[in-house]
Structures are given as structure tokens and as C-alpha cells.
């Protein structure tokens, strides 16, 4: 997922400003606070499984770095980055504690580059899979729980939490597929690029990183991927409804 290695002080100042703006907005809009509270379980699930997927796939490919660091766990505290989690909760875009991997340990059946691409893809794919799982759970409850439960306060809150979990996982998965450093998509596309394009991409990684920061801070990243998130979330729910 994220691996912030550039200009951390500047980034954290920007992040702090964004969180303060969000908190100020919450004080004037109680409904937003309610939405955030409902979304916390989805955030914990999305980040935990995303990072766990990176670690377990790297382990299956022969690298035990994540295992030695205690990252092959579904304990949220093993994967949560405090600032990244706050960002995901309050701003809608965030990250977990990066899973460290050593591509030189990967099985020689594939190249290190392909191994990195596979490990990077595991996180977003896990989020999409989770969205399907919770989509099925949502449809099962909707079909079999009965109107009494669905119209109750508990039922209403549970259904909203499941919806939030679906959207959070889809959003995190799609967001991380953007092919810009430090997102997973930047490594996923590497095996598909011609040699000169790879070299140019690596040599200009810092520029791409700054482009990403501009897109993120300006809100353009959210606007660009929002249609994809809505389309995929609706598609997942349609498939789950069809299955049941």
C-alpha cells in the first residue's frame, strides 16, 4: 500500500490540515459523525485484510519478511498506521502500515518484477473479494431477516455498516490500482511496460509521486475514481442479488 518516503514533514502538515478541516465540518454536521462511526468497522476490515494479503502472498512466494515482522495476522493493530487510519476515517483516503517484502527471496519460478506485481495486486484484489463477501451477507440478511429486523434500529445500523464496509473496500481497492507511486498500481503495471518505459518510470518516480500528491490533495483523484467505485460497487451488489 502506501510507503511514504518523501517529504514526510510536509505530508504530515497537509494531512493534519485535512483532518482539522474534516473535524470542523463534523462539529456543524452531526450526521457526518454518525456516518464516520458506522464506517469505522469497514475501515478496520479493509486495511487489515489489504495488508495481510500483501504479506501472505509474499510468504507464499518464498519471502518470510512479513512473517518475521508479525504481519501474517488479522489483528488490526498489526497493520494500522495511526495517521493513515485517521485519514481513511475522516477524509476517505488513507493507508495502512506498509508490509515490508524482500523480492530477492521470491521463488525463482517467476521474476522479482512479476513477484512484486503479484504481491502488490493481492491487496486491492482482497478488498474487492471482501466487497463481494459483504455484498452476499447484505443480500442474505435482506432476503431472510424479515421486515421486523430490517425496520428495527439494530437492523438499520447493521445494514448501514455493511453498506459502508462494501463501499470502503471497493474504494480502497480501486484507489490503490491507480498506477502512481506509492500506490500498488505503480508496481502492478511494471511487467507490462517496455524496458525503456520502465526505466523512465523508475527514474521519474519522485515526479509521479508529486503528481499523485497534487491529485490527492486537490480532490481530483477522488473525482476521477468515484465513477469507477460507484460502478463496481453497484455491479457487485447486482451480482450478489442475482446469485441469491
Protein architecture, described:
The protein is mostly helical. It has one domain. The chain contains 11 helices and no strands. Helix 2 crosses helix 4, helix 2 crosses helix 5 (112-144) and helix 5 packs across helix 11. The longest helix has 33 residues, at 112-144. The chain starts with 7 loop residues before the first helix and ends with a helix.
List keywords for this structure.
244 residues; disordered N terminus
List the helices and strands and how they pair.
Elements: H1 8-28, H2 30-60, H3 65-68, H4 82-90, H5 112-144, H6 147-150, H7 153-175, H8 185-188, H9 195-203, H10 205-218, H11 220-243
Helix pairs in contact: 1-2, 1-4, 2-4, 2-5, 2-7, 5-7, 5-11, 7-11
Question: Concise description?
Answer:
The protein has 244 residues and is mostly helical. It has one domain (8-243). It has eleven helices and no strands.
What is the gyration radius calculated from CA atoms?
A: 19 Å
Helical stretch tally: 11
Strand tally is 0
Outline type: globular
Please tell me the total number of domains: 1
Helix content: over 70%
Q: Termini, distance in Å? A: 33 Å
Q: β content, as a range?
A: under 5%
Order of helices and strands: HHHHHHHHHHH
Structural class: mainly alpha
Stretches with pLDDT under 50, minimum 5 residues: 2-6
The profile of the biggest β sheet is: none
Average pLDDT number: 84
Amino acid at each position: 500500500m502506501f510507503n511514504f518516503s518523501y517529504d514526510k514533514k510536509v505530508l504530515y502538515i497537509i494531512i493534519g490540515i485535512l483532518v482539522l478541516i474534516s473535524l470542523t465540518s463534523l462539529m456543524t454536521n452531526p450526521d457526518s459523525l454518525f456516518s464516520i462511526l458506522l464506517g469505522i468497522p469497514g475501515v478496520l476490515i479493509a486495511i487489515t485484510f489489504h495488508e495481510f494479503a500483501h504479506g501472505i502472498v509474499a510468504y507464499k512466494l518464498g519471502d518470510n519478511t512479513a512473517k518475521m515482522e508479525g504481519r501474517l495476522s488479522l489483528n488490526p493493530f498489526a497493520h494500522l498506521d495511526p495517521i493513515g487510519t485517521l485519514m481513511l476515517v475522516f477524509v476517505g483516503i488513507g493507508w495502512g502500515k506498509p508490509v515490508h517484502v524482500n523480492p530477492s527471496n521470491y521463488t525463482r519460478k517467476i521474476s522479482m518484477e512479476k513477484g512484486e506485481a503479484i504481491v502488490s495486486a493481492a491487496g486491492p484484489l482482497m478488498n474487492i473479494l471482501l466487497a463481494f463477501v459483504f455484498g452476499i451477507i447484505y443480500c442474505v440478511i435482506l432476503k431472510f431477516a424479515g421486515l421486523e429486523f430490517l425496520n428495527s434500529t439494530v437492523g438499520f445500523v447493521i445494514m448501514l455498516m455493511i453498506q459502508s464496509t462494501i463501499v470502503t473496500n471497493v474504494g480502497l481497492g480501486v484507489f490503490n490500482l491507480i498506477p502512481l507511486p506509492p500506490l500498488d498500481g505503480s508496481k502492478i503495471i511494471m511487467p507490462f511496460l517496455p524496458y525503456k518505459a520502465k526505466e523512465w518510470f523508475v527514474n521519474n518516480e519522485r515526479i509521479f509521486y508529486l503528481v499523485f500528491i497534487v491529485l490527492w490533495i486537490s480532490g481530483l483523484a477522488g473525482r476521477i475514481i468515484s465513477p469507477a467505485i460507484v460502478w463496481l460497487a453497484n455491479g457487485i451488489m447486482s451480482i450478489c442479488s442475482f446469485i441469491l
